[in-house]
Amino acid sequence: MKDKMIATQYDGKVLTEIAGFSISQLVAEHGSPVYLYDAETIRQRCRDLQMFETVRFAQKACSNLSILALLKEQGIVVDAVSAGEVLRALAVGYSATSDPPEIVYTSDIFDRDALQVVAEHHIHCNLGSPDMIPQLAEVQPGAEITLRINPGFGHGHSQKTNTGGPQSKHGIWHEQLPSCLAQAKACGLKVVGLHMHIGSGTDLEHLAQVCEAMERCARLVGPTLKTISAGGGLPTVYRAGQQGMDLAQYHRLWDEVRNRLAADFGHPIGLELEPGRYLVAESGYLLTEIRAVKKMGDNLFYLVDAGFNNLARPILYGAYHPMAICPVGQRTSNTNHDVVVGGPLCESGDIFTQEDGGVVSRRSLPAAQVGDLLVIGCTGAYGAVMASNYNSKPLAAEIMLDRGELRIIRHKQTLEDLIANERSALETVTR
Ligand code: LLP
């Protein structure tokens, strides 16, 4: 099977079609900005991971119900970090009580909503703080639980996505595992799982270090252990020069750990992987229209109608996304220019071409004029889910291309939707 379109093939170029659909026609029909997903790319990424017996999608990366339903069809189970994410998983038919559980709640706290939803639906919990142990025991007496361990080190594509080590709020500090095991026992909970996630956008070298830490912790838990989870963090190639990961080698490392534990404990040990980005990043595109082209000193700006209200990764992490131009009118030039790409928001940081720390950078993009479209690629993970209504901008529509068909998977928020809640509150107060 031919591999799907990858970022490095279209970055800095002209792009007119995605999965056989005309980009300009999609925008003409669905408006701009709009998030587009190519279902076949998601299926391909699921196939890449099929050597892992349980792949648990970290839905925080892209929790649209239609994306979850597609992943469910591929045999992927799901992680949830909030009451809302549990409800999303239930809404597409994931079962809470299967073995292994199709839904796991992973967090470092139970807010009141989460505790209630977890209790009501008997959701298996992966606890990232010691205080969660008695809180869960109260609502799920006798439950089986997983403990999320912070192994004392972490790594991510940005310091903000590093989830291990003493500066991270995530997980139970590895030295506290024995006391948490005792506490769980005293509360009547049974520790059957261990989980480690050291960060997002990391690499094989750092991920491999987790194997050893996991094995050490697993021996402290002993034979009640049924499952180990390697967490997520698998990298995605956003730009030329970045390395993908040797998945077979990664699987081999974990398989060896699990086999050694199984031999020692005398029963099989389940192995889970918990990727978010890897499964969905490359499937997504943010399509946006160029509404102004202007010069500021030496800088040429393309200003588009999507901003960090739609895609926050560049302003938050200086994240690089591949970009292409889809000309709508007659192309007047075939040359590329070094440009700065910005959005519509009333804030200087609303720049898609920036590095960590907010340094504005330039990108080589084809000549474009007002009305042409900018395609921002690899936006399927941590794109639409991190959108906001800042500057009172409505959330964009999301559409999915699948086997030659197009489906709207989230309707564009209307301007009236934006203010309806407050309008009714205003009316209540003034009545
Ligand atoms: N498991 C846990 C417990 C996590 O906290 C995360 C991500 C994942 C799995 C999935 O990690 P992934 O495979 O996607 O790297 N907004 C940031 C990423 C934040 C990740 C938060 N946790 C970004 O846009 O890069």
**CATH homologous superfamily caption of the largest domain:** Alanine racemase
Q: What profile does the largest beta sheet have?
A: 9 strands, mixed
The rough form would be described as globular
And the CATH topology of the largest domain? TIM Barrel
Question: What proportion of the residues form beta strands (DSSP E)?
Answer: 15-25%
Count of structural domains: 2
Name the bound molecules.
Answer: ligand LLP
Give the uncertain stretches in residue-range form: none
Number of E-state strands: 22
DSSP helix count? Answer: 13
Give Rg in angstroms.
Answer: 23 Å
Q: What helical percentage do the residues reach? A: 25-40%
Q: Helices and strands: which structural class?
A: alpha/beta
Distance between the termini: 64 Å
Q: Whole-number average pLDDT?
A: 96
CATH architecture name of the largest domain: Alpha-Beta Barrel
Top CATH class of the largest domain: Alpha Beta
Describe the structure.
- Strands 3, 13, 14, 15, 16, 19, 20, 21 and 22 form a 9-stranded mixed β-sheet that branches. Strands 4-5-6-7-8-10-11-12 form an 8-stranded parallel beta barrel, surrounded by 6 helices.
- The longest helix is centred in the middle third of the chain and has 19 residues, at 247-265.
- By secondary structure, it is an alpha/beta fold.
- It folds into 2 domains: 7-36 and 281-419, Lyase, Ornithine Decarboxylase, Chain A, domain 1 (Beta Barrel), CATH 2.40.37.10; 50-274, Alpha-Beta Barrel (TIM Barrel).
- It starts with 6 loop residues before the first helix and ends with a helix.
- It contains 13 helices and 22 strands.
- α4 links the parallel β4 (54-58) and β5 (77-80).
- Helix content is 30%, strand content 24%.
- Ligand LLP is lined by residues 58, 60-61, 106, 161, 163, 197, 200-201, 231-234, 274-278, 313, 317, 381-382.
- Ligand LLP binds at residues 58, 60-61, 106, 161, 163, 197, 200-201, 231-234, 274-278, 313, 317, 381-382.
